[in-house]
Write a structure and sequence with these properties.
Radius of gyration: 22 Å
Low-confidence stretches: 1-6
Shape: globular
Distance between the termini: 36 Å
Strand content: under 5%
Number of strands: 0
Oligomer: single chain
Number of helices: 21
Order of helices and strands: HHHHHHHHHHHHHHHHHHHHH
Length: 444
Amino acid sequence: MHNETAHVIFGWNAALFASGVFTAIYALIISEKINRAILALCGACVMILAGLVTQDAAIDGVDFNTIGLLLGMMLIVGITARSGVFQYVAIWSAKKVHAEPVGVLFMLSLVTACLSALLDNVTTVLLIVPVTLLITEELKVRAYPYLIAEVLFSNIGGTATLIGDPPNIMIGSSVGLTFNDFVYHLTPAVIVVLAATLAPLYFLWRHDLKTTPEARKRVMLYNEREAITDPRLLRQSLFVLACVIGGFVAAHSLRIAPATIALAGAALLLLLDNFSRKAEEQSQAVQKAFAEVEWVTLMFFVGLFILVHGLNAAGVIRMMAEKLLEATGGDRNTTVLSILWGSAILSAFIDNIPFVATMIPMIKNMAPAFGGDAGLLPLWWALSLGACLGGNGTLIGASANLVVAGLAERAGQPIRFVPYMKSCFLLMILSIIVSHIYLTLRYL
């Protein structure tokens, strides 16, 4: 490894310079005055131009497994969505409970959680919220409780798997944890959190969940089959999704990285979708598929990885790890629970993606204190539970929250910061109490 910190501009202290750049970028990300992808890329360029890391070292610092996994899943979900299958699922689930408002709330919450675990939480709410607004309008009930439930359950469901939430993708990729590892270690906790969150939701909003028999009849007249606009694409998409999920499950024994599986699935679906088209139509279809990829998110990740690599190269993250170990007296159990609660509270107020990006190398540095990599496993689960569930605490805690707020605003059903926090911060704390008990019983 090259000596990356040898030539920091003007001979400045590398650790202070890297900390200053990172803190400034972080503060600007929280302020939301400038797009976060612009900020992350600017910060990355400053790290390289100042000589803190070389260009080659910066490229080494980018986790292309995370980028590839996100890109592949974005392509697969974007193409699959064109078939109308997600609208079908939402209408079908509402009819299954005879359009009873309480039943619809529970069903849409569970559908959101399941889809978030298998796709990702931002895509899930983009697909589910428009159908929810349609159903609640027909039922003549307030959409607000349904939208809040979908925010909460998208983040809870996303916690259960490797691909459900960006923090999990980052942890899994960096540490080499598999899809099966996340399912085995986190899904039991997520199931208990789901149950613990559903009950309070009913008591919070039961007075809003009343409708007339006529309104319910209107929803029951919906034909979910009409939502399927392209049956051929639906069959192709479900086949590819099944192959990809199967690939994730078998990835460890096949020795294939998750990004390769996701990108192979995306390539196969693009091929199947365009196989019978003429050349010109193919070009348009492929351009449309790639245009729907969230490039802003991917570029944010690239810049962020380089920023964190700069902090690491300057020795800042090692110092932070040492300080945390000092504060917890080097006791593993105390450290695990400190990471859980610290991650949850901080992730409620600051974006959990840069927070997790900083925590990953910090936890890695603790390996010698806890007997190697195996001793760190409970710390990774604590970080995942804290960062993913903590995002429910406020409206700015996770990307899915802001996406739902934007869709609700456009539909004339605004979700405001303080009312959201009043109802959801305590629900988030409840989920962290459940996680605390789970981690203590299973690992400590």
